[in-house]
Amino acid sequence: MTSSNATESLSNLRAVVIVIVVAFHSALPYLASQPSHPFLFDIAPYRWIAIPIIDRERWFGFDLFCAWQDVSLMSLMFFLAGLLAPASLNRKGSLVYLRDRWWRIAVPFLFAVAILSPLAYFASYRATATDPSAAAFWQHWRALPMWPSGPQWFLWQLFLLTAVAAGLRAFVPRPLAALSQLGGRCGDRPLGAVLGLVALSFAAYVPLAMVFSPWDWTYLGPFSFQLSRPLHYTVYFFAGFAVGGYGCGRGILSYDGPVVRRWPLLLAAAVVSFGAWGGLTALTLPDWNASSVAYRLMAASAFPIACASGVLCLLAISLRLMRRRYRVLDALSSNAYGIYLVHYCFVLWLQYALLRFDLNAIGKAALVFTCALVLSWAASAAFARLASSQAGIAARQAIAHRPR
After folding, report:
1. Could you give the CA distance from residue 146 to residue 349 in angstroms, rounded to a whole number?
2. In sequence order, what are the residues at sequence separation of 6 or more whose Cβ sits closer than 8 angstroms to the Cβ of residue 244?
3. Domain tally, the chain
4. Is the pTM of this model over 0.90?
5. By residue range, what is the domain housing residue 154?
6. How many CB atoms lie under 10 A from the CB of residue 290?
7. Are 283 and 323 in contact (CB under 8 A)?
């Protein structure tokens, strides 16, 4: 498989991932496992941050879909980010790379936290507020013990990991070189690669899950993270870095490699391991801490296996079945980051608007998903055109004022 083929497959996968992200958030109000009433805005532990809108319409199929994505989607996003990091870091050098990551990741995070997050959560506040005015919301928002960032938590953690990678390259380059060599050996040893990923994820995830539970979050201002997963996501970022450091189209990213050829087996493993994780996790519900240690340990131990199977399955399927260019996927992929930044505002306000309508859960989720994807895609494309236009104007002005 050529580097170009791998690039096209990964671009298509990026488009698929952003569609899944929007679909995941669109389905949350309609989970059958949620309580009958929405979470109050001012009451700890502020569960509305994760489930901002709760609708009376429910469908258990959304529980399965969202649970599957919770197991592997964010890990895949960290893996893909790590996968693309080595080429950019080697091309630009540590300082320029870190500066670009600041403008690409940190600044959008700050904008999203300051503007987009309050705008999105205003819809959640109105769902339970006695005074739904903007002034009342702002008063309640500022009284919170944290500043919820919504899905943008991913950005600050990603920036931190890219900063670590840049620092290692600048001051201690040997570990990154060793990672690239390890990534090269993975292509010929797929079973060893899977087992190694599971083992590292197990060591990073299970102890924290046993201490804090798999679900709890902590907040420090706008910075939030799931207590059981920061080390787990670090493992996936640097696992992606190892594969990407060896090169696209080579090793595990080779079209005719054993990982890609065995995508049906990986798909079966993903389904079976997810089912096992779901069954074991059900034994710990509704109260993780009240469950027996044996049940908690089995449920926590099943997560790394289900996660690795799901991530490698999606990666292998994209490399095997999505090697061609598609205009729609190309356009979606190029706008994926912009869609990620703005989609939550559209999702929450659409869900809030549909609370009053008599429509089943599938119909509501489909309507929210379709409208939110189209609107956020249009907003991302419009901003990209505006930025391109402003850059063109600045370039022409610079040429016009150049000394002759």
Report:
1. 22
2. 82, 83, 84, 85, 86, 87, 183
3. 1
4. yes
5. 3-400
6. 9
7. no
Length of the chain: 404
336-380: pLDDT as tens digits: 999 999 999 999 999 999 999 999 999 999 999 999 999 999 999
Q: Are 301 and 202 in contact (CB under 8 A)?
A: yes
What's the Cα-to-Cα distance from 332 to each of 202, 337, 338, rounded to whole Å?
A: 34, 9, 10
CA distance 14 to 33: 30
Residues 155 and 222: beta-carbon distance below 8 Å: no
Among 179, 185, 203, 175, smallest CA distance to 82 is for 179
pLDDT at position 327 = 86
CB neighbours of residue 205 within 10 Å: 24
| Per-residue model confidence (pLDDT) at position 181 | 81
Tokens of 178: 């060793």
Q: Which residue has the tokens 């840049």?
A: 166
What phi and psi values does residue 31 have, to the nearest 5 degrees?
-75, 135
Q: What is the 3-state secondary structure (H, E, C) of 339-379?
A: HHHHHHHHHHHHHHHHHHCCCCHHHHHHHHHHHHHHHHHHH
Selected residue with higher pLDDT from 215 and 324 = 215
R_g of the chain computed on alpha carbons: 22
The answer to whether residues 222 and 149 touch, using CB atoms and an 8 Å cutoff, is: yes
How far is it, in rounded angstroms, from Cα 231 to Cα 121?
Answer: 28
Which backbone phi and psi does 226 adopt, to 5 degrees?
-80, 120
For residues 165, 170, 172, 174, the Cα torsion angle rounded to the nearest 10 degrees is 80
Q: Dump pLDDT digits (tens) for 81-121.
A: 999 999 999 999 999 999 999 999 999 999 999 999 999 99
